[in-house]
Amino acid sequence: MAKVYPDQKEPTFSPCTSYGPHTYTLWMKSLVFNSNGCTVYDSNGLVVYRVDNYDTKGRRDVNLLDLRGRVLCTIHKRLLGFGRWDVYRSSDDSSNSENQEKPWFQVKRCHEMMTGKLTCQISMVECQKYCIEKIGAKTAFRIVNTDDGDIVAHAKQKHSSSGVILGSDVLTLDVEGGIDHSLVMAFVTVFGLICGRM
């Protein structure tokens, strides 16, 4: 019997393990009807990451998923009044409880009183430190490696190819090389939760 759909080659780009520069489109909506979340598309228009909160906005536990629905990390809001989130990396090995005991990284919300600028400090288990800075009053933000000051990713409102500005819930995210893209997406997810967008 002939196959209706021929076997397709697996894409050479794997977003979860990629370390090269890449541009994504963030749609601050869930693919699930009448649900909260975020959907991330690659430069070919394929879904690569998603967050689905279903009917609850601002949940205490949120999962970042890949295209196939595999949980990449779980984000847990720790202290309601102090704005701290712990992010746990998921493991394919369910017997490995170490990943569930130690956070992959922690995020603390900071608000500079003098400038009114919203920032988030990120502390990694490996002693790396990052910062997410909101840029202006719009939805733009950037992720900075605080050790060397390099911008590892930045997001801004998306423009169509003809120059039309799309809605405030559609962003372009440019990720530089040398960083795990799933880590950047986890940062973006936490920042979306902090800003009340998911």
From TrEMBL:
It holds the Pfam family LOR. GO terms for molecular function: translation initiation factor activity. Keywords: Initiation factor, Protein biosynthesis. Coiled coil: none annotated. This is Translation initiation factor eIF-2B subunit alpha. PANTHER family: PROTEIN LURP-ONE-RELATED 4 (PTHR31087:SF59), PTHR31087. Belongs to the LOR family.
